[in-house]
Amino acid sequence: MRILVVGGGAREHTLCWKLAGEAGIRQVVCAPGNTGLSQIARCVPVDIGDPSAVLSLVEREQIDLTVVGPEFPLTRGLANVLAEAGHPVCGPTREAAELESSKGFAKDLMARHGVPTARYVICETASAALDTLRSGRFGYPVVLKADGLAAGKGVVVAPDAASAEASVKHIMVDRRFGDAGARVLVEECLWGREASFFVLTDGARAAVLPSAQDHKRAFDEDQGPNTGGMGAFSPSPLIDGAMAGRILDEIVFPTLHGMAAEGRPYRGFLYCGLMLTADGPKVIEFNARLGDPETQVILPALGVELLPLLIDATCGRLASGVCRVRPERHVGVVLASGGYPDRFETGHVISGLDAAATLPDVMVFHAGTAQVGSDVVTAGGRVLTVVARGADFASARERAYDAVSRVSFDQMHFRRDIAASLS
Ligand code: GLY
Fold this sequence. Notes:
Blueprint: E1 2-7, H1 10-20, E2 27-32, E3 42-43, H2 51-60, E4 65-68, H3 71-75, H4 78-84, E5 89-90, H5 98-101, H6 103-112, E6 120-123, H7 126-134, E7 142-146, E8 155-158, H8 161-173, E9 184-188, E10 193-201, E11 206-208, E12 213-214, E13 217-219, E14 223-226, E15 231-234, H9 241-261, E16 268-277, E17 280-287, H10 294-301, H11 307-315, E18 321-322, E19 329-337, H12 353-357, E20 362-366, E21 369-372, E22 375-378, E23 382-390, H13 393-406, E24 412-413
Glycine binds at residues 152, 214, 228-229, 287, 291-292, 294.
């Protein structure tokens, strides 16, 4: 088979790495890919936000199956365009991807189908949001969410009225996230432990992938601004078999049935961001894709081949069940450009990549990198994810940080406490 993976980050590097060695794969093509990906896949520069450009690539390259990594092409209707042209694609339609692209749609769907989540109000204007806050209905801290896609930055946990009201202005009046902030959700703050639960679904059935936890804040001890994720580990010790069963019964299947009943069958990867509360698991958010950096630890942890699952999900013949997970633990540390998630420099030469990647049980996945002559240089905020496996979290962590110590670039920044609470 000829597979196309759409995207160019460390998540897509990991998808290609997992698929590249599997039975039945003739070639992995990646659009647009990145420097690391070009060692294992044929990278083709394409505007992945333009579905017709990707369709041309699929036809030109005689692709048998397309797997979409990021949410943006899905919200532009890439899965619709490929499916309408008769090309198998693993990823939800634009309508189904609204589970991620409209927080309000997702909350209303959960309300209609009895999926546990935080109480909320959707506010169409800044004055409605201020009235909701001043009603005292949710108390403090309170959660404010931009309705649309905001690159992981559109959620604020406001500790008091002053910061909540400033955030309303920031999102709805100043339009810090553009039209994504045209509507705001005001939500009660949930208390508990966060974990990420992933399934691959054909719309009715769900294959459960390894679970994970990520570290979203920029600095150690969960300080600093929210990022796309500074590290992750898998599996989450919070999700045992009984909890996985509850999440499937109370969250995943009611959501899939609700989406199908409302004429938006959901196919592809579904990422459930959960708060495990004293009242059971509740949805913080859905994403219409795999997580980043969670993918970098869950696919190495997956104990079965991915290709047969992708084919079955795409053909509508997936078997529900929990996929076999490797016995080891996996820890991933993101190496970022200094200043990320705010302003950062690019173009710094990266050294030590081979020294890290050739260590046993270590994988180095590229995100923001570029080839300049014989050098690999930084080209983004999150530059690399260094992943290691070990018999337990302590040894996986030690191995990951040993590999991290071999890599360097000017202003390199990383957290030193990924999975530290488990060691
Ligand atoms: N790590 C969070 C996300 O992928 O959205």
